[in-house]
């Protein structure tokens, strides 16, 4: 039997309409948000996820938790995608965005139940979001132009405060800022960008996280192909190859009929000669460092050793792509020319670096490419007890690198610890009363929904969230109504002592873009789900067996 709001379709499926689907969607979103809620903030806890093959992931990152959940409900999936979007666009704030979106949806559902039309709620939400973003930009943003390097470090520390590496956040924050500065690229118009993908993060077991290190240059987790090759090459000319330097073989399916057995040897020799000639061409072009994704035959190694070149085999393709970018090389997948006659290797395909050297770093031998010509490069080697820990360290470091990059690019910061959300709550609440239309109710609910962040932060820290949030709102009300108290707009939660403090002084800073995007994305996701008033779900078609046809 179909329940209220559900009808059975002639097609073989179920259709859910009206209020019933709205409530169902809101409940699904809340269920998802409740999973990540307890991981928000510096005193939030981690989650352990075990997948169907038994792989364990321990994480505090909202996007990672949601990705591993395998959500079935269509509205829930929107929330998972939302967190992923925030992760790609900003890198941090993925937990917050899911929590806010769910809260907005819950509030909207209640409004619709009180007979407000969904379109009115949607309009109200859009309006509130726009006002909120404007208010942040005009009143709550700090510009890093007049703030120094320490504030960027503080932003990185705030991000890491909720993660596994929070105890060493000083150490890692310095490292992140330095690494991001190393890969700065200034384009023709003078605008600086920080492609953090150029930072290679390597993980090595053993020692403590404090022994992690930053390396100026690109660290390649490989060793030279033969011990007879030089350890160090200055003025390196680098060839990046995406093919093997092995005895060339006929393609599959080609058969050669040889009638004279003496010619067999000649064919074998020629197979070897083809690769030999290729290597000669590469060396002739001036290459003294050869990196390849494929293998190198032992016989071919001799050629490199004699030429005094350093060759590395079985490097990862992503690494080679990045090295090619950094050194100005071209990743070559074959030596064939457009003319189709003889194979060629042009010297312009080579990249350059000051030095390529194989060094022993902590317990591992790595090939380092120092001083690449086209761009700078940086690598971070993480140390940790086990894989689970190293993976989480990498994710946390990625969040911090993204934050540093955002701050350096946009040069705008806001104060964390619920300060922005509380300020927006007070402002939008007041703003709603100036609206004479029905949207007023939606704007007021939007304002209320934002308080979920300070509330959750406080309850995760085992503090009285209702009282703390009331106190926080009172501070922000004062700051917005009394001119002499405007400095109170930096008031935020002090989660260790269960009090309110000036979070700007305390150094709890976050990139403005993280908050703005978080609000925008959460509103959009809530609206997307709110617009749905019909769910038609078709039954799965049972596969019919056509055994008799095969017989
Ligand atoms: N020392 C602190 N005191 C008070 N609040 C803090 C402190 N450090 C961080 N916060 C707050 O914690 C929240 C961020 O928590 P968290 O990093 O766990 O979640 P997220 O950034 O939303 O998601 P994720 O990091 O998983 O992508 C922000 O609202 C931030 O203002
Ligand atoms: Mg975070």
From TrEMBL:
**Localization per Swiss-Prot or TrEMBL:** Cytoplasm
Q: Which residues cross the membrane?
A: none
Major subcellular site: cytoplasm
The record's annotation in CDD domains points to: TCP1_alpha
Q: Does the keyword Acyltransferase apply?
A: no
Residue runs in coiled coils: none
Query: Which GO CC terms are listed, alphabetically?
Result: cytoplasm
One matching Pfam family: Cpn60_TCP1
Output the Gene Ontology terms for molecular function.
ATP binding; ATP hydrolysis activity; ATP-dependent protein folding chaperone; unfolded protein binding
- What keywords would UniProt list here? ATP-binding, Chaperone, Cytoplasm, Nucleotide-binding
Q: Which reaction does it catalyse?
A: ATP + H2O = ADP + phosphate + H(+)
What NCBIfam families does UniProt report for this protein, alphabetically? Answer: chap_CCT_alpha, thermosome_alpha, thermosome_beta
Q: Which PANTHER family match?
A: CHAPERONIN
| Family to which the UniProt record says this protein belongs | Belongs to the TCP-1 chaperonin family.
Q: What is this protein called?
A: T-complex protein 1 subunit alpha
Q: What is the lineage of its organism?
A: Eukaryota, Metazoa, Ecdysozoa, Nematoda, Chromadorea
């Amino acid at each position: 039997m179909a329940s209220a709001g559900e009808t059975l379709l002639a097609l073989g499926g179920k259709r859910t309409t009206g209020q019933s689907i709205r409530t169902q969607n809101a409940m699904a979103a809340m269920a998802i948000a409740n999973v990540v809620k307890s991981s928000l903030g510096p005193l939030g806890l981690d989650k352990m996820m075990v997948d169907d093959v038994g792989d364990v992931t321990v994480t505090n990152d909202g996007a990672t938790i949601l990705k591993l959940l395998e959500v079935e409900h269509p509205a829930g999936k929107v929330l998972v995608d939302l967190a992923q979007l925030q992760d790609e666009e900003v890198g941090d704030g993925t937990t917050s965005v899911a929590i806010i979106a769910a809260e907005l949806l819950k509030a909207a559902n209640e409004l619709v139940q009180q007979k407000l039309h969904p379109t009115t709620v949607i309009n109200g939400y859009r309006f509130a979001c726009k006002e909120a973003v404007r208010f942040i930009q005009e009143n709550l943003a700090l510009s890093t132009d007049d703030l120094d390097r320490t504030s960027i470090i503080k932003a990185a520390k705030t991000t890491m405060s909720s993660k596994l590496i929070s105890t060493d956040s000083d150490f890692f924050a310095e490292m992140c800022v330095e690494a991001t500065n190393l890969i700065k690229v200034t384009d023709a118009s003078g605008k600086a960008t920080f492609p953090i993908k150029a930072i290679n993060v390597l993980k090595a077991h053993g020692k403590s996280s404090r022994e992690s290190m930053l390396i100026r240059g690109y660290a390649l987790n490989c060793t030279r192909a033969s011990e007879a090759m030089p350890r160090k090459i200055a003025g390196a000319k680098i060839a990046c190859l995406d093919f093997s330097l092995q005895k060339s073989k006929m393609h599959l399916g080609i058969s050669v009929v040889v009638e004279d057995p003496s010619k067999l040897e000649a064919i074998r020799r020629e197979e070897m000669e083809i690769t030999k000639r290729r290597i000669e061409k590469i060396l002739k072009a001036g290459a003294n460092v050869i990196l390849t994704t494929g293998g190198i035959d032992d016989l071919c190694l001799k050629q490199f050793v004699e030429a005094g070149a350093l060759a590395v085999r079985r490097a990862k393709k992503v690494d080679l792509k990045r090295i090619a970018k950094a050194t100005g090389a071209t990743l070559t997948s074959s030596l064939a020319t457009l003319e189709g006659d003889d194979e060629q290797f042009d010297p312009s395909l080579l990249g350059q670096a000051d030095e390529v050297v194989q060094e022993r770093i902590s317990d591992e031998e790595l090939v380092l490419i120092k001083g690449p010509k086209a761009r700078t490069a940086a690598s971070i080697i993480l140390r940790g007890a086990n894989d689970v820990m190293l993976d989480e360290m990498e994710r946390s470091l990625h969040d911090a690198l993204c934050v540093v990059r955002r701050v350096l690019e946009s040069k705008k910061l806001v104060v964390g610890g619920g300060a922005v959300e509380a300020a927006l709550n007070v402002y939008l609440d007041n703003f709603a009363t100036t609206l004479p239309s029905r949207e007023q109710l939606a704007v007021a609910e939007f304002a209320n929904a934002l308080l979920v962040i300070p509330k959750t932060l406080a309850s995760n820290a085992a503090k009285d969230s209702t009282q703390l949030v009331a106190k926080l709102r009172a501070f922000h009300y004062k700051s917005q109504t009394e001119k002499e108290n405007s400095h109170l707009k930096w008031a935020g939660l002090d989660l260790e002592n269960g009090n309110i403090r000036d979070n700007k002084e305390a150094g709890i800073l976050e990139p403005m873009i993280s908050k703005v995007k978080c609000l925008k994305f959460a509103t959009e996701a809530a609206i997307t789900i709110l617009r749905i008033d019909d769910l038609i779900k078709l039954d799965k078609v049972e596969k019919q067996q056509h055994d008799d046809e095969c017989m």
